[in-house]
Amino acid sequence: MDTATKPKHIGRNISRIRELRGMKQEALATAIGVSQQSVSNIEGSETVDEEKLQAIAEVLGVTADGIKNYSDEAVFNIIGNTVNNHDNASFFQYQPTFNPLDKLVDAYEENKKLYERLVQAEKEKVEYLEKLLKGK
C-alpha cells in the first residue's frame, strides 16, 4: 500500500473558495481577464501556474498559499469551534437596551401632535378660502 500523500488539487480548491465567496465562474473570469470556459478548465486542473494562481487569489481575497493549503475539514473545524451554541435561535434573540413600550408611547404621542398640527393647518386653509369667497 502506498502511504505517500496525495497532492492537493488546486483547481478544486479554487472552486470551493469561489463558491464559499458566492462568486460565479463568470465573475471570476471577468476579474482575471479570461473566459468562463478558461476558469472551468482551471478548476478542473490539478495544478495552476503561479501567475494565474496569484491573480485568482487576489480576486478571491485569499493568499496563493491559502488556496494551496485549503481543506474543507479546516473550514468545518473553524465554524464548529466558533459557534458554541448549536441552537440557531440564539442568533435571533434580541435584547433591546430600551423599553419598547416607552418607545411605542412616544411614537403615539408624536403621531397625536402631528395630527393636531394637520387639523390646525386644515382649519387655517378653510378660514383662508372662506375669506377669499367673501371678498368676491
TrEMBL record:
Pfam families assigned: HTH_3
Keywords for the protein's UniProt record, in alphabetical order: Coiled coil, DNA-binding
Signal peptide: none
InterPro entries for this protein: Cro/C1-type_HTH, Lambda_DNA-bd_dom_sf
Coiled-coil portions: 104-131
Tagged with keyword Coiled coil: yes
Gene3D superfamilies documented for this protein: lambda repressor-like DNA-binding domains
Residue ranges annotated for the HTH cro/C1-type domain, each copy included: 14-67
Gene Ontology molecular function terms on file: DNA binding
Protein name: Transcriptional regulator
Organism, as annotated: Flavobacterium aquariorum
